[in-house]
Amino acid sequence: MPQYKIALKKSYLAMIKNAVGTNMFRNFYLIKNGRVNDDTKDGQLSCALFVTAILYHFGLIKKPHLTVKSTQADLKTSGWRKIKGPKPGAVLFWEEKYNNGSANRHVGFYLGQQMAISNMASKRKPGRHHWTYNNARQVEAIYWHSELNNKQFNGAGKKLDKDEKIIDS
Q1: Fewest CB within a 10 Å sphere: which of 8, 20, 39, 100?
Q2: What Gene3D superfamilies does the record point to (predicted)?
């Protein structure tokens, strides 16, 4: 059976773009004090889960997260570095925004051509939008992983050896 190497960046960007409109990240349940609670509030707070599920799938972080703060901390210890300008696939962190008396940070992906994708609280699912919400929300940090520069990747944070095979077809 033939084996092939993963085209990481192409697969990664395709998964991000194809996530638009999915309900997959809408609910995540935790047991707190003996009660089951939807910690993403039916998709209103799913931005960190959306981003980290994709990053985890490709071995670019240690585990999925439900908060922006823990997402950013994991990126910093998983090889992600701040960069000055966005490029397709970069992880974006937006400034805190106050809504109904509470402050919320936000995380998503840069797609290119001034577009981003992140969980949209109003729609309760990932959607495309201008990367600065048409100058309504400033990006406070942009992160990039050097593995996204590699043409070949094994999904575990390592560049492939010349002869390493990783997927059956």
Answers
A1: 100
A2: endopeptidase domain like (from Nostoc punctiforme)
SS3 percent helix, strand, coil of the chain, rounded to 5, is: 20, 35, 45
Q: Where are the domains of the chain?
A: 3-168
Token code pair at residue 28: 């995540």
Pairing between β-strand 167-168 and β-strand 3-4 as defined by DSSP bridges: antiparallel
CATH number of 3-168: 3.90.1720.10
pTM: predicted TM-score of the whole model, two decimal places: 0.87
What is the H or E stretch that residue 98 is in? strand 91-99
- Please name which of 13, 137, 144, 119 lies closest in space to residue 67, comparing C-alpha atoms: 119
What sections of 19-86 are H helices per DSSP?
47-57, 68-77
Give the three-state DSSP class for 120.
strand
- Cα-to-chain-centroid distance, residue 168: 26
